[in-house]
Amino acid sequence: GSSVHAHALSQQGEHAHPMGRRGHGVGQPGLAVAQCVADISAAEFVSLDLEFSGLFLWPEGGQRPLTLGEYFRRCAESVPCFLPLQLGICCVCRREDGQGWELRAHEFDLWPQHRQIFSADLQSLRFLREHGFDFNAFFERGKQYARLPPPDAAKCTKGQPLPPASCILQAIREARVPLLVHNGFLDLLHLFDKFIGGLPDSLEEFAQIWTAQFPVLYDTRHLAQEGRYNVLKHAGGLSLEALHQHLRPLTRVHADLRHTGLRPDSFAHGSSGRDAVLTAEVFLMEVELWVRHWVSAASARKRRRMEREEDLRQSLEALDWQGVHARARELGVGLLRAAGVGRRPVAEIRADVFAAECSREGALDDGSGEEAPMCRAVLEDPTGHPALAGAPLERFHRAFSVFQNRLAVVGASPGSIHLGEPTK
């Protein structure tokens, strides 16, 4: 799409930005930011969403999908040229009665503290305007942001005021709370570039620095990609709206949710605040369906194993003593008594053959679905209803470790990026 260039002027610029006169500068975070910081400190998960002034400097070209390295370089070239215009935060915490979740939603327009030349894609701006983004209010109420001090300098800079929006990212970094995004690779790159530092040259270096400061992340699009047909039973698109619409009637999670702070219906359609709420809800609904799938798969495997064992038992019972001895020799089961004098009873040999056959089948099992026992024990209440809200979260993260720090990627191959294992 067409793009334009603009200057973002801070209070220190030649002409003071209007929000400088409205108390949005350094040292004056305001009640909304303070409430958001408090909610982050109490959250089990925090979902994030950003709206940008544009996505890419150049349209996608070529017939073949990009490699992950090429895709990272394309993104890294574009991200510094565009601004994040709006930040949506949804803090997910347990209800006090343990019967569900409380979603505390926040939305902030963003403005760089320091003078910056940026690009704006007219198609992106038109999309925002069509979905209710108020550019006049944006210039009046935007919260300033700047890069945070490095984590190792936090003690030295403690007490020094930060721009309001930077206080939010600082709170997330200090809490080390698990993050939720939907197709969020660009969101992460913008957060890194605007709040952490210049983007590294390689995807590997970016991943290492990111996970050191934000150790755990889940991407709802990746969870959907991995279980699109067999878990979510979904043949439609994987956009946030499409997933939310499909999953809501399939799960019971929405009945346990209570929204506080700004209600999601107060956000404009497609705004960052609304999308952050939808991301949190989609995540909780996906978790319920994955738990059901794992528990169901474990039950089916147990049923098949019992059927195989019964077939094996009957086949062994049908063998005469010669057949039992032949099978025992194949499996290495001893025929002689412990003292080495005389043969063991056929019934005793048959029982050992049965045990050896069962053990061999267990060793050949692919081990898939090992999460199921943990899901059954930890993520279900006594009635069999998924109750993640009552589960110890460290056990939840172990059960869902296969999804940790994996981001969906559209336009590159393979279709996901693994940022690495969580940093302690």
Can you tell me about this structure?
This protein has 424 residues and is α/β, with parallel strands linked by helices. The protein folds into two domains: 3-290 and 397-418, Nucleotidyltransferase, domain 5 (2-Layer Sandwich), CATH 3.30.420.10; 294-378, no CATH class. The chain has helices spanning 30-41, 68-78, 122-130, 135-141, 154-157, 164-175, 185-196, 203-213, 220-226, 240-247, 272-317, 321-331, 346-364, 371-378, 393-399; strands at 3-8, 45-52, 66-67, 84-94, 101-112, 116-121, 143-145, 179-181, 217-219, 257-261, 406-408, 412-413, 416-418. α11 packs antiparallel against α13. 38% of the residues are buried. The model is unreliable at 1-24, 366-370 and 376-387 (pLDDT under 50).
Features:
single chain; 424 residues; two-stranded antiparallel sheet; disordered N terminus; 15 helices; alpha/beta; seven-stranded mixed beta sheet; 2 domains; Nucleotidyltransferase, domain 5
What is the gist of this entry?
The chain has helices at residues 30-41, 68-78, 122-130, 135-141, 154-157, 164-175, 185-196, 203-213, 220-226, 240-247, 272-317, 321-331, 346-364, 371-378, 393-399, and strands at 3-8, 45-52, 66-67, 84-94, 101-112, 116-121, 143-145, 179-181, 217-219, 257-261, 406-408, 412-413, 416-418. With 424 residues, the protein is an alpha/beta fold. It folds into 2 domains: 3-290 and 397-418, Nucleotidyltransferase, domain 5; 294-378, no CATH class.
